[in-house]
Amino acid sequence: MAQQPGQPRRTDWIRGRTAWLKGRTATLRDAPFPRRLAAQLIHIHVLDTATRLAAQTFLTAIPVLFVLAAFMPRVVRNSVSDSLRTVLGLQGASLDEITGALNPSGAESTTDTFGGVGILVTLLAATTCSRILQRLCERSWHLPHLAGRLAAWRWLAWLLMWLTALILQGQIRSGLGTGAAIGAVLYLITATLLWWWTQHLLLGGRIPWPPLLPGAVLTAAALTVLAWASRLYVPRSLNRSITQFGPLGLVFTLLSWLIVVFTAVTLCIGIGYVVASQGRLARLLGTPTPNPEDED
After folding, report:
1. What element of type H or E holds 61?
2. At residue 158, does pLDDT exceed 90?
3. Rounded-to-integer distance, Cα 278 and Cα 211, Å
4. What's the pLDDT at 148?
5. What is the rounded average pLDDT for all residues in the chain?
6. Distance between CA 262 and CA 260 in Å, rounded?
7. Which of residues 19 and 75 earns the better pLDDT score?
8. Which residues contact 175 (CB under 8 A, 6 or more apart)?
9. What is the distance between the alpha carbons of residues 38 and 204, in angstroms, rounded to a whole number?
10. pLDDT, tens only, 54-111
11. What are the distances in angstroms from CA 131 to CA 105, 126, 246, 272?
12. In the chain, is it the N or the C terminus that has fewer CB atoms within a 10 Å radius of its CB?
């Protein structure tokens, strides 16, 4: 097939731009913080990565929760419903939609029909989220892609931890029964630990623990603010969308909110690298210097 007249020139420009960005990686550590931050945000493709994470979470990871609901004991289903109600502030029609999905009628027949093989296939499909998140962490830390044979178990481990954390969110946000103020502190601490572990796991242990801490703290702080904001925005938006569009309104609102959440995650993980490699802090944390030749 013949190439379009302007295609070679455009391809050369893209290659040249990519080479320039990689070449600048080696000297970014000594550049002013705003310049390094701008280069990092361009490098990690913030909106593209956030949109892919949101779409895959909605299409694969969230359905895992509803599929497993058919196999969960009722106490676990109730815990998930409490978590979603507490974190998102669900009420009215939106809460009824979620509760109905988590407590399907004919659960026993659904269990028999779906089977263990179905659960396994659904879990494997949901690891797409883990793979995209792994690539985000690798791009943020300027590391080559970890081979699938070394990373496969990490994708599944991250997904199972995510599901466990979601089930426990209601209890954490309520401060284990002590109140919302304690709950906010507990949520911040647990989210920091979760995202600290997430980076270390998906990077294959190639970056020491200390340099990963700034990104984990930033991500946890952003998600804590968004969790609070979601209780003001999501319920009203969901109820209005469901009233106007029915169940399809649930899709629009949740997908839009997931894009906001994963934009925050993408930004914070990317910025975490810039902060951790900043001058004196880099020496204190022992942040390694990236090698641009190793990166894809």
Report:
1. none
2. yes
3. 11
4. 78
5. 81
6. 6
7. 75
8. 181, 182, 183, 184, 185, 186
9. 26
10. 999 888 877 777 776 667 777 777 777 777 776 666 666 666 666 666 665 545 545 5
11. 34, 9, 33, 20
12. N
Sign of the CA dihedral 83, 216, 237, 104? negative
- In the numeric block, the tokens 């647990």 are attached to 190
Q: Are 53 and 265 in contact (CB under 8 A)?
A: yes
Angle between helices 107-140 and 247-276 (to 10 degrees): 30
> For residues 94 and 239, is the Cβ–Cβ distance under 8 A?
yes
Three-state DSSP class for residue 248: helix
Output the pTM of the full model: 0.83
Burial of 195 (0-12, 13-18, 19+ CB in 10 A): buried
**Helical ranges in the chain per DSSP H:** 7-25, 33-44, 46-56, 62-69, 74-88, 92-102, 107-140, 148-173, 180-202, 209-245, 247-276, 279-285
Map tokens 């494997």 to a residue: 124
For tokens 């980076």, the residue is 199
Contacts of residue 120, Cβ cutoff 8 Å, sequence gap at least 6: none
User: What percent of the chain lies above the pLDDT cut of 70?
Assistant: 74
Give the DSSP letter of residue 57. I
* Longest Cα separation, the chain: 69
Distance between CA atoms of 292 and 211, rounded to whole angstroms?
18
**Cβ atoms of 114 and 67 closer than 8 Å:** yes
pLDDT of residue 109: 46
* DSSP assignment letter at 30: G
Contact 140, 270 (CB under 8 A): yes
287: tokens are 């942040």
Measured between alpha carbons, how far is residue 37 from residues 33, 43, 56, 163 in Å? 6, 10, 27, 32
Can you read off the two tokens belonging to residue 83? Answer: 């978590």
